[in-house]
Design a protein that fits this description.
The complex is a heterodimer of chains A (180) and B (773). With 180 residues, chain A is an alpha+beta fold. Chain A is built from 5 helices and 7 strands. Chain A has one domain: Gcn5-related N-acetyltransferase (GNAT) (Aminopeptidase). Chain B has 3 domains: 59 residues, no CATH class; 235 residues, no CATH class; 311 residues, no CATH class. The two termini of chain B are 51 Å apart. The chains are: A alpha+beta (180), B mainly alpha (773). The site of coenzyme A has 19 residues of chain A, from strand 4, helix 3 and helix 4. Chain B: This is ZYRO0D12408p.
Chain lengths: 180, 773
């Protein structure tokens, strides 16, 4: 059975495994700093999947890594930074569950929208997100180091997502402080 | 200096004098090793120690020690690469040496094409040549060009001059990039690895002389024909900067570049030539200051044709200089980069060539003349007699010039930026409109001069409306930008099939608003033309000689000075009206097709999302976000979209009748749009003296033709597609159809990417993932 847990920041083997999972598939190599940037600040927005019946029930076989911050001081934006499932475990709905959990958490925390970028060629990821309601907002030319175009996808959660930031009010408080 | 060298200098024993030269005594120094170790041992693994300005962006662009993907010092070089000696003479005899030099220059020149045409990085292409690195480093030290010391002119003179030719051209590219029109990384990579690209060389002449001298020397060698052609190609590359330095429209260098590239592309022996081992490598990424992860070497294919593309695209840009009217400049910008993305240098050059540092346009119009010209050729001609007060014509015109420049700059952006540019522009046009409209209306209501302005009855019996020439122009530009923004989204595959209805329904609405505005302006032009003809009638009727002469003079003046332009305006507006009508017809045809497919249960205007995170209303509003703040045309609410949608879906009772009616409407719209496109195409071919439409596409005839031919192909494909759908589905609906078929948005070959086709595809397997591309 697959179980899902938020990240345990003190557990170094989890950290290493996340890095391994992500590095294995993503075209863009990330430095340790990038992982730490997300995980240290938003450990509660990183979910891991474990195979309880597998050989290594302690080692995550899938993960999603997110952050949530105010966007120009006017809108709360959740961001899905990384997502990967070990190849042997794909196609069983694990990514869908991981993403769902993280979105639920970010929605609960008051995010107005969830954003992410994915390569135009990554049809699997596009299917995954678009079947969850994300729409493509723009295409970015040769966005990644491997030189493919990318899409920026957004899932609107509140009406604020649909108004240009120029026409939104400033937050009267810093929501980043409250959420973290 | 390389990293190892720097570390060596840090060695106390090695550089004692240097370290302590400020009078610091060695005994004053404190050994911090223990302190450092203690502090480090109390750190948690997760702790980040960083400089305050180091952020995520920096992080995603940083190197990481011992991470193979990110550590450029982990790059492994072969001994030949690591120890390559530039001052050695390679080749056992003269023939061999010549072959090496040709091989090196051939590869270097082809690397330029990989860099610029294929968007590769500088270090993996041009800078992978050890000679480039060596000569740039050594020359910088001396502040002047230095040469190799192999003892053979083939290397010391000819190879060096070729290398400098490439470097000087790279300097020009760097200049274009710094002008801020194109984007680093996105359009072009200029990771110069900290090298100085000949900033100490005053101009291209010294490089040109070097190359010419090399040609002279080369011509003394036997079998040097290809080498001479490569050197000539470099001369023409170096000369390209004249397009910018002197705004020269002399294309002889570009033609010669094409000639040389054509010749070289036909030399089969090139590209296979042996080069000295280690002369090209990724070593520079290891040796010099590098802020990017290691990237592998690019082995250039036979690609001399790349220079032909570059030269032809640059030549195209220079043609804008032949524009006679603002409309021609505008249409040039509109079409030159529309169907196919132009070469990056051409795209960078266009706005710089058009809008010059001395604040003139093409060196012949001031900013205000330029903007005013656009207005005159659109709406202002109708109210020429009225002197608008400076509060309308000055400050707002400057603002208008800025937005207009945005528009022009945007036309040469890469295809993705192009759409984003419109997104930003919408705000600018909108606030400009608000500003100008307020002034025009206020002036109309207050100023007595304003009474002289024309009011025209739009429909018989209706209250006459004023033209508001400034506002009308801004509004027309804005609505056109909104349409372009939406349609470009189809080209970039930003919309899923389920969104097709909404986006075309909205395009129809916008095209309709645009058409109303164009027709209004055209009505004013007509009334002006009629007024001039009326003068003539008055002349004939007038009895008093003096009055008659006065009227006659007025009539003559108007005929000589206004009539021609008014006729041109009228026909240009007519062209735009035909275009708006094409957009309307095609959009509504897509809407009908969508409605028909919906009636069979094969598609819906709702997101396929099966969770409750969002709603269709939010998705609609997010889609329309760029328009949310725009006053006019007002944002159509979600409810309206939903309620009109139902009207386009044939249903029971009398499904078959409704279906046939929808099909009929669809075909009618397609037929109409086809006639309209053919009309435009004919007028483009015939030129602007055709007496019907002015398309102002003289300078972009083939590009404009290609664009409208594409639209025509799309219309034909929409037609066949719709028939195919009907014959596949018949007139009976059944729930099983959904299991059999899905709907995709497909581009048709040669068709316009603004109008992809909603086509039926059969599910190949039970669980297909490509049902919505
Ligand atoms: C993308 C990835 C995380 C999906 O993981 P997964 O656990 O296999 O995905 P799921 O089983 O939860 O599938 C979720 C949805 O993704 C899509 N999907 C999954 N596998 C697919 C495939 N082979 N082809 C097409 N779509 C597929 C489907 O829409 C699926 O939903 P559905 O089953 O309801 O149709 C996984 O393929 C992966 O790790 N890829 C490499 C890393 C990566 O690309 N990350 C995303 C970067 S933004």
């Amino acid at each position: 059975m697959i179980i899902y847990k938020p990240l345990d920041l003190e557990n170094l083997s989890q950290f290493k495994q996340i890095k391994k999972l992500i590095d294995a598939d993503l075209s863009e190599p990330y430095s340790i700093y990038v992982y730490r940037y997300f995980l240290n600040r938003w450990p509660e927005l990183a979910y891991l999947a474990f195979d309880q019946d597998g050989n290594e029930p302690e080692i995550p076989i899938g993960c999603v890594v997110c952050k949530s911050e105010s966007h120009r001081g006017r809108r709360m934006r959740g961001y899905i930074g990384m997502l990967a499932v070990e190849s042997g475990y794909r196609g069983q709905g694990i990514a869908k569950t991981l993403v769902t959990k993280s979105i639920e958490k970010m929605a609960k925390d008051g995010c107005d929208e969830i954003m992410l970028e994915t390569e135009v060629e990554n049809q699997i990821a596009l299917n995954l997100y678009e079947n969850m309601g994300f729409i493509r907002m723009k295409r970015m030319f040769r966005y990644y180091l491997n030189e493919g175009d990318a899409y920026k996808l957004i899932l609107p959660l509140t009406e604020k997502s649909c108004i240009r930031t120029t026409f939104l009010q400033d937050f009267t408080f810093d929501p980043n402080l409250i959420i973290n | 200096m390389d990293l190892e060298g720097k570390l060596k200098n840090l060695d106390l024993e090695f550089n004692r004098d240097g370290l302590f030269q400020d009078g610091i005594m060695e005994e004053d120094l404190v050994d911090v090793t223990q302190f450092f170790d203690d502090s480090a041992s109390s750190l948690q693994t997760k702790t980040i120690i960083k400089e305050p300005n180091f952020n995520l962006f920096e992080g995603t662009h940083s190197l990481e020690v011992e991470n193979k993907k990110l550590d450029s010092t982990s790059i492994q070089l072969t001994p030949a690469e690591a120890n390559f000696e530039c001052n050695a003479l390679y080749g056992s005899d003269e023939k061999h040496q010549l072959s090496y030099v040709v091989g090196i220059l051939d590869r270097l020149v082809r690397s330029v094409v990989c860099w610029l045409n294929d968007y590769q990085t500088l270090p993996t292409t041009v800078l992978s040549c050890r000679y480039v690195e060596h000569l740039l480093l050594e020359s910088e030290k001396k502040g002047q060009l230095v040469f190799l010391h192999t003892g053979h002119p083939l290397f010391d003179q000819i190879l060096c001059s070729g290398i400098y030719g490439v470097c000087y051209f790279a300097r020009f590219v760097q200049r274009l990039l710094k002008a801020g029109v194109i984007f680093e990384e996105e359009d072009l990579n200029f990771n110069g690895m900290g090298l100085n690209f000949l900033s100490y060389v005053e101009d291209g002449n010294s490089i040109l002389s070097l190359l010419q001298e090399s040609i002279r020397i080369a011509s003394l060698c036997s079998d040097s024909e290809v080498l001479i052609h490569i050197l000539k190609l470099l001369i023409h590359l170096v000369s390209i900067e004249k397009c910018l330095d002197e705004f020269s429209t002399d294309v002889s260098h570009l033609n010669a570049l094409i000639e040389e590239a054509t010749y070289l592309s036909q030399q089969p022996q090139l590209s296979n030539l042996e080069i000295p081992a280690g002369s090209f490598s990724i070593g520079i990424q290891r040796r010099l200051s590098n802020q990017f992860p290691p990237k592998s070497l690019i082995i250039p294919p036979r690609n001399y044709e790349g220079f032909i593309v570059m030269a032809q695209d640059l030549k195209k840009v220079l043609q804008v200089d032949n524009a006679n009217t603002m409309m021609e400049i505008m249409q040039f910008a509109n079409f030159f980069n529309k169907f196919e993305q132009r070469h990056v240098l051409a795209r960078a050059l266009f706005p710089l060539f058009l809008i010059r540092d001395n604040r003139t346009i093409l060196g012949r119009y001031t900013l205000s003349e330029f903007t005013h010209g656009h207005l005159l050729e659109f709406s202002l001609m109708c109210t020429m007699e009225v002197d608008f007060p400076p509060e309308i014509t000055e400050q707002p015109l400057m603002e208008a010039a800025n937005v207009l420049f945005e528009w022009y700059q945007n036309t040469s952006q890469n295809t993705s930026r192009y759409r984003q540019g419109y997104n930003r522009q919408l705000l600018l046009w909108d606030s400009l409109q608000a500003q100008i409209e307020a002034m025009e209306v206020e002036w109309l209501s207050k100023d007595s001069d304003a009474a002289a302005i024309d009011y025209v009855e739009m429909k018989e019996g209706e209250e006459p409306t004023p033209l508001l020439p400034y506002t009308s122009w801004v509004y027309a530009m804005k609505v056109r930008a909104m349409i372009e923004f939406i349609l470009k989204g189809f080209d970039l595959q930003v919309y899923k099939p389920f969104e097709t209805y909404t986006m075309y329904w909205y395009t129809y609405y916008l095209a309709h608003q645009w058409e109303i505005c164009l027709k209004k302006v055209q009505k004013f032009v007509d009334s002006k033309i009629n007024a001039i003809h009326g003068l003539n009638k008055k002349v004939k009727k007038s009895k008093s000689g003096e009055k008659r002469e006065l009227l006659k003079a007025q009539y003559r003046f108007a005929m000589d000075n206004h009539m021609g332009q008014l006729q041109v305006n009228k026909r240009f507006l007519q062209y735009l009206i035909v275009e708006s009508s094409i957009f309307k017809s095609l959009s509504i045809a897509q809407v009908f097709q969508f409605g028909i497919l919906t009636s069979y249960g094969l598609i819906d205007n709702k997101s396929p999302a099966k969770n409750n995170f969002t709603t269709n209303e939010l998705l609609y509003n997010l889609r329309m976000k760029p328009f949310c703040s725009i006053g006019v045309p007002e944002l159509l609410p979600y409810e309206l979209m939903e309620s009109t949608f139902k009207e386009f879906v044939p249903d029971e009772p009398m499904f078959t009748i409704k279906l046939n009616k929808a099909m009929e409407c669809l075909h009618k719209e397609l037929n109409e749009s086809k006639l309209n496109v053919e009309h435009i195409l004919k007028c483009i071919q015939g030129g602007d003296n055709n007496g019907v439409l002015v398309t102002a596409t003289r300078l972009v005839k083939s590009e404009a033709t290609k664009f409208y031919e594409g639209v025509k192909t799309s219309i034909e494909t929409l037609e066949t597609n719709s028939k195919k759908i009907q014959s596949t589905l018949g007139s009976k609906r059944s729930p099983s159809l959904r299991e059999k078929y899905a709907v995709q948005l497909q581009f048709c070959e040669g068709g316009s990417s603004f109008f992809p086709v909603l086509s039926l595809t059969s599910h190949t397997s039970k669980k297909s993932h490509i049902n919505q591309k």
